[in-house]
Design brief:
The chain is an alpha/beta fold. Helix content is 33%, strand content 18%.
Length: 351
């Protein structure tokens, strides 16, 4: 296949496929012959090595809200173009787009038996969802360097399509897939570990063989009042929303949260609430919202004097696949609102 011109299909969302912005996020899968929108960068990066024979496009909302249906429809469109390689994205930090790219690549690999490659920023939820199944090239957060990012996707994609050996993640810029391979090292594990320790103690540079995620430390705040005099708020990332989900909180990779009044309520009526969260079985919460947001027990504590007051607004979002950046932003905004309302402490419930 190395001497042949490869048939390549690109997958884009509605924005990069030049259909429109959020106003077109609900459009279903469609196909355009040749390269359009960001797929032109793929064609430029391919040069004489391949031809973008089709560009498959789908709106972000359609792909997120009807995930299984969208993936099935997209795979059918890809299959009709008879590609040797599928290039999805890059999605950068766009979460819905990234998840759709990962889902399509995984399905195309499994069903069509073709190589696939996509690209995303490290905090895109699609990375953790699909990096073990597909090759996900690390990109920046924004599309300002589209062509260089695409060139790296295409370089890896060509190697995959030609059946060439793929080196370590650091060599090709893709996220580690959790695949363990035996290699011949220059020293045994004990010697390598001691060498790294000595380098660390001496302040010299070293590269760990087992990288771990690093999160900034967060100091636990002290409650300056007794509970009997404190105003307590209920906050959840478990996805409880009023019926109809008026704030449009996403089922995964949330970018929104809701503030819902419980003034005058001693309990939550299940008929008035719903839960779009896709990270766990929400059946039991839908039957009884107190299993996630214990308004009933909190009111009892308020009436008994165990706490000073229950804040009359609950805050809710969806935590599954939500990026660290979005989580931090929403947390800051909710904390500012609670602080302004005189809340002293929060009971944060999860799944």
């Amino acid at each position: 296949m190395a001497a042949e011109t490869l048939r390549v299909v690109c997958y884009l969302n509605q924005f990069f496929g030049q259909l429109g912005g959020e106003d077109k996020a609900g459009v279903g899968p469609q196909v355009v012959d040749g390269a359009i929108g960001a797929a032109r960068a793929v064609q430029q990066a391919l040069g004489d090595a391949g031809t973008v024979v089709a560009t498959v496009i789908c709106g972000d909302n359609y792909a997120a809200e009807q995930a299984e249906r969208a993936t099935t429809e997209l795979v059918a469109l890809v299959a009709a173009a008879r590609p040797d390689l599928l290039v999805a994205g890059p999605a950068f930090l766009a979460g819905r787009y990234g998840v759709a790219c990962g889902a399509l690549c995984a399905a195309a690999q499994a069903e069509l038996k073709i190589p696939t490659v996509t690209g995303m920023h490290a905090e895109n939820p699609g990375v953790e969802l699909y990096r073990r199944q597909v090759y996900v090239v690390q990109t920046g957060a924004e599309a300002t360097r589209m062509l260089p990012e695409v060139q790296r996707l295409v370089a890896l994609g060509l190697k995959l399509a030609r059946g060439e050996a793929i080196g370590a993640p650091a060599a090709h810029g893709y996220f580690a897939r959790g695949v363990t391979r035996n290699i011949v090292a220059g020293a045994n594990a004990a010697d390598r570990a001691v060498a790294m320790l000595l380098d660390k103690l001496a302040g010299r540079a070293f590269t760990t063989e087992v990288p771990r995620p690093a999160f900034p430390p967060v100091a636990a705040p002290r409650l300056v009042k007794t509970l009997a005099g404190a105003t307590i708020a209920l906050v959840t990332d478990g996805g409880l929303v009023p019926r109809g989900n008026p704030d449009g909180i996403e089922a995964l990779n949330a970018t929104r949260y809701g503030a819902y009044s419980i003034e005058g309520k001693s309990s939550l009526d299940a008929a008035q609430y719903d839960n779009p969260h896709r990270g766990y079985d929400t059946t039991w919460v839908k039957q009884d919202p107190h299993r996630l947001v214990p308004v009933d027990v909190a009111r009892e504590l308020e009436q008994s004097g165990a706490i000073g007051k229950l804040h009359e607004t609950i805050y809710s979002t969806v935590g599954v696949a939500t990026t660290l950046a979005q989580s931090a932003r929403m947390g800051r905004e909710i904390a500012e609102k609670l602080r302004a309302a005189g809340v002293d402490a929060v009971i944060l419930t999860s799944t």
